[in-house]
Amino acid sequence: MAADDKPAGLIYPPIDIKAIVDKTAEHVAKSGTAFEQLIREKYEGNDKFSFIYPNDPYFAYYEHMVDQHKSGKPIDDQADEHSNSVSDVVASKLESEHVPERPD
To answer: Which of 44, 45, 53, 79 could, after both became Cys, cross-link 12 (CB 3.0–4.6 A)?
Structure first.
């Protein structure tokens, strides 16, 4: 996806929530708003699904992902930039820590 296809001010959720948002958006795109309503009813009050409400900071990202899945366009996950930066930090931290060798 071109950078200009991304809505302005889009806030990416943390990796653990993003996985739920992405999967939910994919299912809503396939199954429609009735499925979204079922999610609202089943997970009402569950913070992990608060993104389906317009007042949530990740709602715009969720809607964007639903639209992307509906359009059938390949999804170029811009959040990978965030994920990669987190992965890079974790990797560099692990590399900098000395891990003792296992005794034989």
So the answer is: 79
